[in-house]
Specification:
Length: 247
């Protein structure tokens, strides 16, 4: 497949897939598609500076984490919150199946990726944001530090195991869509704590340009802050997110 090509099959596949890719970009980090953000050592977070004193000394429940999430007002002008419906999440999706191809490390996790399965969703809180077409998802986790380090190392090793692979979307009776995905580890500099980062680029011809997302995660004590979405918004949100959740 050409590096910039997206293959579509089935009746209405082109139209449906175009809408799905736009929606997936909105739900993605929102579903950690930057998937949620190297290979081996770089994605493991082992290169980050040693953690300082734990900002939280015990495990927090989801209800205790929610007030520590960013608000739209913390991110400046033009940012709005995308809080999901408790029953529907961030909206209905045309995607009924699919997942990574040609990437043995990611194939077992399907479209959702390894984050939820390896890190878990208990004692966590999530909020989404948008700004002029940019998207951001924030996740907060409360875990025992040693356990979280092991889980994050495994998750980011899987996310960055394949620098290039194909991804298939099954669109119900609308056919399928296939795109080329590229990933790379990124180093998170100047941040206290154990850090993890990666970039994911989806080559989608229908959107006329590649879609790039970034994931950065920082663990301080029992608290982990994870940001996924449009690179500029992720970078801008990192400092206020850490300040609010870990200090």
């Amino acid at each position: 497949m050409n590096a910039s090509a997206v293959e579509r099959t089935g009746p209405g596949g082109a139209v449906a897939a175009r809408g799905v890719w736009r929606r997936r970009r909105a739900v993605a980090g929102l579903a950690l598609l930057a998937a949620l953000t190297g290979c081996s050592g770089g994605g493991s977070g082992s290169g980050g500076p040693a953690p300082g004193p734990a900002p939280t000394s015990t495990r927090l429940k989801a209800e205790d984490l929610r007030p520590l999430l960013l608000a739209a007002s913390d991110l400046g002008k033009g940012v709005r919150s995308l809080d999901p419906d408790p029953d529907k999440g961030y909206g209905d999706s045309l995607v009924t199946g699919g997942g990574p191809k040609d990437c043995e490390a990611l194939e077992p996790y399907g479209l959702d990726g390894p984050i939820d399965e390896l890190i878990g969703t208990e004692d966590s809180a999530t909020r989404g944001f948008s700004r002029d077409g940019e998207l951001l998802s924030q996740q907060l986790y409360s875990r025992m530090p040693a356990s979280m380090s092991d889980r994050m190392n495994k998750a980011f090793a899987a996310l960055t195991a394949c620098p290039e692979y194909s991804e298939l979307l099954v669109l119900g009776d609308q056919g399928t869509a296939e795109a080329l995905v590229k990933t790379r580890a990124i180093e998170v500099k100047g941040v206290e704590g154990r850090t993890y980062g990666y970039e994911r680029t989806v080559m989608d011809k229908e959107l006329r340009s590649p879609t790039r997302t970034m994931t950065i995660a920082v663990t301080r004590g029992w608290t982990t802050v994870m940001l996924t979405g449009s690179p500029d918004l992720v970078k801008e949100a990192l400092e206020p997110a850490l300040r609010k959740a870990t200090r």
